[in-house]
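#struct-pred
JK: can someone run the complex with 3-methyl-2-oxobutanoic acid? inputs below
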Amino acid sequence: MAGYLIEDEKKITSTRFTQMKAQGKKIAMLTSYDYTMAQIVDAAGVDSILIGDSASNVMAGNDTTLPITIDQMIYHARSVARGAKRAFVICDMPFGTYQVSREEGIKNAVRIMQETGVDCLKLEGGLEIIDTVRGIINAGIPVCGHLGLTPQSVFKFGGFGLRAKEEAEANKLMNDAKLLEEAGCCAVVLEKIPAALANKVTAALSIPTIGIGAGNGCDGQVLVGQDMLGMNKGFKPKFLRHFADVYTAITDGVGDYVRAVKDGTFPNENEQY
Ligand code: KIV
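RT: done, structure tokens with the ligand placed:
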């Protein structure tokens, strides 16, 4: 029953998003990259839709998020923003658009906001990008942070493994989370870190933490839509739950179509003019 989880139809804003934590309401976020999917997940009751730069992997078949460009992200984000009526819509700033300088980061942030109609931008990192984060927020743009496994730094990390297992990295992550909150971020994504650390960060912040592979103690959860719908057979990390088997549903539907075309039963007389 689509929509039965929606308490009220009002559009979710950055302030309401942050208030959800104070009210003890868990936040359900999913990625989408296109209009049709955004319409479905919005009507089904997600609080937030992320146009992740994981579009690079999921939509384009790349191994990492690094190749996706600002123009490609704008295309995906504009499509999603048209489809999402209620959810708080967050767009990733892609690799290279905010790391070079504060000025360039602010310019690119303004461009994404102007050309897409999204509600918020997400940037990966803490101390290293904090001046840029402040500048973007000063320009009036809501920002969501992203700490832990930050896939744009995969080559620095040497892979997609669990982050912040050691004390030094865990301490840095906690400090970065506090810096992002002080800078005015409306939320922080915590990716692939020990649940105990995510719990500590969640307790230390008044803005919501949104976990992916960060345990049950976060204020919300985010998953890649295609992954949680079971569309990608080859990808099943420990943190991922399949909530549907859309791979099989599509395979069965396409198989039925092919058979019906080949045996001449599609279209029938009611399906022609
Ligand atoms: O790009 C993305 O989909 C993300 C989520 C996995 C948090 O950043």
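RT: quick notes.
The longest strand covers residues 143-148.
The mean pLDDT is 96.
JK: thanks, will look after standup
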